[in-house]
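Q: what sequence does this backbone want?
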């Protein structure tokens, strides 16, 4: 029986790995590239971690499993609710293996809270409120065992908080500490538990690239040579620490074990275009702000004061004070953010809007949004068509070059019963273009005075802190006795990995998986001896933990605080 070990890396990119491996800086990655099969791995369409990791573990597109983001819209409102892995539809790779009596071990995969009852153990990931949560581990007593041996479990290193407080040096220390603890826990559980399938995700690459990209990239607008001398090597150091861990773990495995390295998305330089989408929509007549008599001067002033106070509070207040504030006023934070995100929008004259955080647009649809004005059917289709044509002509405000690779309607990207959870349009920026900002065109002259050029109303992800962002192509590498050496894959999707692992372990593939087996990575002798079999499954299954419901108020605050610290919320 063939075993499998999956080494997950959140946000790893070949844009960094390939040149550094060639230069001899990442010898273990280089060994995988020369002795195994590899290639870019296409992420979920929106390149968001919740959608991508859930597509990995289910082999399904987000329209089937229902997880697109850390939060989802609340019907008939402009508000959102946080979601967790328990709201996922469809079985995971490790559940399927458990049902076939394989022994599994899973550590730190995002969107796995509450921990499923598997044939082995599972330590939940990013969506868990914290290590002390009752369902953080399966079996439950594993939490006490790990804390007794390794101290407090570091779920996330929290780099952003250190940078906000002007202590990048402490961020670097915490990064190294978190990586070291994950390695120690992984090696301990590998040795103390029997397993056929083992997976661990190291999320710190995502955090360090979000926070430190500007220090190493001379083309980044926030690049400073003096800061680069101090912190320009932080990302490389993190990759080298990962490289050492990778080599150490690989040396513990025999050649019959499939060793797979993968990431949920890639990474690159961040730009401000997402924050400017509502301004762009306003300048092109799709969105209208309350101005003049429709918005009294005192209301404009109040909005500015709230935004300023909120920014100071988020950036300068200690975590303990924030937690006390959250206990005293549990829903205040959500309400304030909603007011700022959609501040001064005249919904009665707005056809489309954005959350200004990610490259997507929602239509203000009658019957769906509480103040929707666009009629379903022909009018909706016309607005979509106008938006697509206009977005296709988006240009950089400095170079004048076209910067949109494509604009996609959700029906083109997703299939299944949960497509309606996705925004109406997803924008894909040209990743090879240097984007400084959106050219707002002639309509920019009609924007209200409270819109400061280039500054979103919502605090957003501060470009002085969050300088790196997700890219569509992550990484895939595989090595083992059954794997071809030096095989470059031209195209692989994150949904392909679950079917490939099941096939490699001689488990029938569920017929509702969207991914395919990457047969090109296997030696002919292996393919000849392993036929591909399937089993009928029900596409629309109930969430795996429906009884867990939504987060409690306390859990919601903890999740919100962590996502903000990671730069996913502000």
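A:
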């Amino acid at each position: 029986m063939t075993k499998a070990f999956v080494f997950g890396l959140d946000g790893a990119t070949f844009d960094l790995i390939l040149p550094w491996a060639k230069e001899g800086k990442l010898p273990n990655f280089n060994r995988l590239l020369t002795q195994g099969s590899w290639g870019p791995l296409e992420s979920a369409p929106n390149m968001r971690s919740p959608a991508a990791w859930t597509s990995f573990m289910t082999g399904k597109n987000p329209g089937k499993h229902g997880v697109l983001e850390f939060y989802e819209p609340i019907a008939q409102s402009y508000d959102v609710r946080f979601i967790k892995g328990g709201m996922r539809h469809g079985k995971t790779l490790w559940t399927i293996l458990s049902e076939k009596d394989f022994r599994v071990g899973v550590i730190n995969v995002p969107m796995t809270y509450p921990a499923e009852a598997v044939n082995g153990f599972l330590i939940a990931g990013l969506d868990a409120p914290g290590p002390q949560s009752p369902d953080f581990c399966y079996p439950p007593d594993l939490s006490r065992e790990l804390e007794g041996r390794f101290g407090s479990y570091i779920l996330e290193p929290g780099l952003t908080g250190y940078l906000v407080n002007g202590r990048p040096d402490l961020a670097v220390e915490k990064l190294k500490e978190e990586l070291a603890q994950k390695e120690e826990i992984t090696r301990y559980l590998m040795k103390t538990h029997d397993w056929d399938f083992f997976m661990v995700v190291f999320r710190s690459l995502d955090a360090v690239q979000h926070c430190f990209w500007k220090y190493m990239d001379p083309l980044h607008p926030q690049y400073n040579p003096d800061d680069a001398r101090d912190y320009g090597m932080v990302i490389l150091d993190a990759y080298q620490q990962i490289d050492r861990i990778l080599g150490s773990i690989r040396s513990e495995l025999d050649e019959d074990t499939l060793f797979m390295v993968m990431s949920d998305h890639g990474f690159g330089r961040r730009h401000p275009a997402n924050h400017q989408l509502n301004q762009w929509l306003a300048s092109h007549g799709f969105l209208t702000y309350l101005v003049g008599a429709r918005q009294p001067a005192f209301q404009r002033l109040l909005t500015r004061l709230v935004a300023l106070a909120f920014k100071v509070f988020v950036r300068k207040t200690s975590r303990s004070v924030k937690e006390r504030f959250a206990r005293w006023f549990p829903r205040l934070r959500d309400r304030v953010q909603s007011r700022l995100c959609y501040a001064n929008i005249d919904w009665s004259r707005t056809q489309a809007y954005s959350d200004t955080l990610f490259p997507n647009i929602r239509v203000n649809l009658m019957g769906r949004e509480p103040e929707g004005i666009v009629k379903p059917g022909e009018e909706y289709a016309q607005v979509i068509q106008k938006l697509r044509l206009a977005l296709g002509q988006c240009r950089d405000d400095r170079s004048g070059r076209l910067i949109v690779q494509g604009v996609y309607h959700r029906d083109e990207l997703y299939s299944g019963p949960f497509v309606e959870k996705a925004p109406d349009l997803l924008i894909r920026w040209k990743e090879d273009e240097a984007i400084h900002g959106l050219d707002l065109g002639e309509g920019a002259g009609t924007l209200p005075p409270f819109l400061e050029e280039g500054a979103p109303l919502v605090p957003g992800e501060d470009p002085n802190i969050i300088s790196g962002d997700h890219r569509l192509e992550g990484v895939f590498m595989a090595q083992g006795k059954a794997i071809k050496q030096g095989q470059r894959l031209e195209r692989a999707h994150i949904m392909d990995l679950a079917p490939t692992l099941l096939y490699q372990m001689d488990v029938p593939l569920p017929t509702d998986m969207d991914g395919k087996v990457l047969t090109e990575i296997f030696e002919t002798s292996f393919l000849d001896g392993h036929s591909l079999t399937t089993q009928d499954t029900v596409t629309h299954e109930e969430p795996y933990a429906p009884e867990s419901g939504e987060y409690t108020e306390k859990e919601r605050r903890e999740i919100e605080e962590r996502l903000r610290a990671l730069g996913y919320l502000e």
